Amino acid sequence: MRGWYLQFSATFVLALAVVSCGGSGVSSTSPSSSSGSSGNATTTVTYTFTGGTPTAAAVQIGNDTFAAALLQSNKLSVSIPQGTTNYAVAFVCPPNVASGTTVTSEYIIEAATQDGTAFNWNCPMQPNTGNATGTVDVSAIPGAAYVLVRGNGSYFQLVNAPVGTFNASLPTDTTDIAFIAVDASIQPNVLAMKLLRDQKVPGPLNGGNAVVFSSGDLATNEPLFISVGSGFTTPTTASVYYYTTNGSYILLNNHSATQYPQVPAASTAGGDFYVFEANSTDTATHNSIVGVTETSTVGGVTTLPLPVPWSYSGPTPAASPTFTFNYSGFSALPAIAHQGETQWAPTPATLRMTTVTATASAQNGASTLAIPDLSSVAGFFSSPPSGTNVYWLATIYGGAARALAVNQSPPSTGSFGFVQNRGNYSQP
User: Which of 107, 324, 357, 401 lies at 20 to 30 Å from 407 by C-alpha?
Assistant: First the structure.
């Protein structure tokens, strides 16, 4: 996501990566609701892709088989006829290098018309970057030793205080840029923060003027509480991001589980919001994971209750494995999504990932989910060779899970949790 993908995917990319159409039913020009020649109304669902452009796409309408589909202007539109609610889209993102491993990802999303009609998805790729230049002055901030210059995600440059110049390499899709003054601690404490809006990268920031801090930019630390059940590790860190109304996101904290810096009022704007996330693994095997994400427009004291864990030994080994989800921990939450994933390494330096995600609407009470065989559609993966070591991950989402399942734009308020199990098997 774009940040949403990067921050909120519960997929754990394994050690290898050093750590996640129905013929005439596909259209790129159909309106959201229209009538065909037969007079039957159709619903059009559109997926808009950012980042890399998928190298292959396919669509399934109802119980039909998957058929190849074409994207137009990075959009995939699916026309669903009256009387049919369920559909699936599948796509392959271009290879992306992560920690020296080339990862190629294949995604299948099973959803229903009641989930919505317009969604965003990001194919991860190395961002285009440019140099942002300027001068920063934190003379008014007691104890400031450095200034972090941050754009989308965790990109930053360290600038010596009290006055220093910067030439920061930032993603070119950055529009809002944060300047964060910190002390000289090993784990630096945030002392002040200034957010510049509507900046262009590359080029000089702040119109070529120095970024000067004042007392109004002082930050306060707010308490952060993470609750975890017995048998699971106590999180030592939480990740806290600040999303701006322009679509930029700033990493505020990733080294404390007890507090985070609140953005000073002078740098806030309507439409901004915080995103908090934490997760934990079981102490015995580290193969069971629980996590929670909370979003808020006001910040302040924040509590992150981790969900009750889920125990699952994994799917039966197969070319197209079926995952079983039996868990009642999210029964009171408004939306649930199921997700199954396999990973395998064609070579020591490459990884293939296949992920199938189904919304609660598409599942309609079902507790199983199979990874479909798309090998007959050009551009999609074939099964791993017999004897291949296959890693699997099974995840259940609760809360705002529907947004996570089929849309990578985070909600500004609300929460969701996930429970996950992982393991491996030998391909039959």
Answer: 324
**Gap between the Cα atoms of 130 and 341, Å rounded:** 35
Tokens representing 69 are: 């589909």
3-state secondary structure of 38: coil
How far is 206 from 136, CA to CA, in rounded Å?
Answer: 10
Judgement on whether residues 206 and 232 belong to the same structural domain of the protein: no
> Confidence band (pLDDT; 50, 70, 90) for 75?
very high
The count of structural domains within the chain is 2
Q: Which of 283, 305, 327 is the last residue of a domain?
A: 305
Whether 160 contacts 234, CB under 8 Å = no
Do both 253 and 204 map to the same domain? no
pLDDT, position 405: 56
DSSP 60-74: EETTSPPEE---BTT
Q: Which of 236, 124, 242 is nearest to 176 (CA)?
A: 242
pLDDT digits (tens, 9 = 90+) for 258-293: 999 999 999 999 999 999 999 999 999 999 999 998
CA angle 75-250-144, nearest 5°? 160
Residue 165 lies in a domain: yes
* Single-letter code of the amino acid located at 59: V
At 338-350, the pLDDT tens digits run: 999 999 999 999 9
Whole-model pTM?
A: 0.86
Q: What range defines the domain where residue 255 resides?
A: 220-305
